[in-house]
Amino acid sequence: MKKVKINKKAKSSELDYYFGKPRLEMTGNECLVDGLKSIIEYSDTRIAVSLGSQTIVFNGFDLRINSFTREGAIIEGNIAYMEFLS
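The chain above was modelled as a monomer; its predicted structure follows.
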């Protein structure tokens, strides 16, 4: 029987690296926000969300939250710019 050496320092996947950490994913006119703790401000021109130690403010027009779950939210609309506050 041949012994197989197990590499204990095996490279972890990208998903392991981000597990449990806030994540943003922009596609077109929407932004997926994972790791959302709470919504601080909500209007059609400004949405502010808390990620715990950081706040992200979405500025633009026709903004709305399309989906909201325990894990995160999808913010849609014409996002002009985002502010990252700590």
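The helical segments are 14-18.
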